[in-house]
What does this fold into?
Amino acid sequence: MSETLERKRVLSCIQPSGMLTLGNYLGALKNWVKMQDEFETTFAVADLHAITVRQEPAKLRSQIYSTYALMLALGLDPEKSTMFIQSHVPEHACLAWVLSCNTQFGEMARMTQFKDKSAKHADNINVGLFSYPVLMAADILLYKPDFVPVGADQKQHLEIARDIAIRFNRLYGDVFTVPDAYIPKTGARVMSLQDPEKKMSKSDDNLNSFVAILDDKDTVIRKFKRAITDSEGGIYVSEDKKGVSNLITIYSAVTGKTVPEVEKEFEGKGYGDFKLAVGEAVADELAPIRERYNKIISDKGELERLFRDGAERAERVARKTCFKAMKKVGFVV
Ligand code: ATP
Ligand code: LTN
It folds into this structure.
């Protein structure tokens, strides 16, 4: 058997719902890049998910290109990973339907992301927003991954995907692999720089609340200088110092230093120096990514060639799983 066949499988996706943030990077994408040498990896731009919130069509189209380009700029390699756009592989929507008929209303109603997003978009609480975790389960189960690298906010959705797989296998016979979440130790939940009670989110209306991966050095440093801390002083992790704790986590995730090392480094220093150091470390990490991105995004033809090729490879796998699930359910296939 070749080495590739023996490797464990990994799958993850990201929504093209805005500029990718430092939270997406530290919570998810940084690990994707590391995993591609060890695992058989599949990564997608989840455009079907993005329309659960109203999107302007021209902007969505350009965000799909830029998200894919950014994945490449971060170091994902189409030679090592299958990289595609979700809507190019129709099996995602097809399996989502089959799975939704095997998922209970009550299970979906518990999802905290649905509660948060429906509060935020009260004028558009659509059915897709509600059943979104079923589509996510389909994304995952089609590729039979062993691990799904995500930030901590996706833990609940991952558990539903596991429940759906277990139930389906029990009812119809073995079709799906039951995946495990892979959540990083540092960076799993990067908080908003303006409200450290909330996670950093690319769809936040307050642009100072998140650092975009493509922000330039001055912008990154300005955003960190404005980050909310507290009036007490003291640079250490604590439940009642959420702003400072968040900055320590970010610095630790970017530099690879442990939290105690970071606390020691800044002992006796003021918030001004600390915020500047965090801003500089983040800006230095992001600068080469931005440079690579600018080159990649200027060649649309090459991007299209890569994502079409990725979709073909993905569909070969997805078709088999979808076909098997449909057959088990009783469809004439
Ligand atoms: P939106 O704000 O539109 O809901 P999002 O950034 O929360 O978008 P995705 O783009 O789908 O959501 O997230 C992609 C990956 O980034 C997921 O694995 C998610 O868990 C991770 N992620 C998102 N925000 C953070 C964060 N603040 N900290 C750590 N990981 C995050
Ligand atoms: N729901 C995720 C994005 C997402 C995903 C997936 C992640 C869609 N499909 C499959 C892992 C596996 C989010 O909103 N962050």
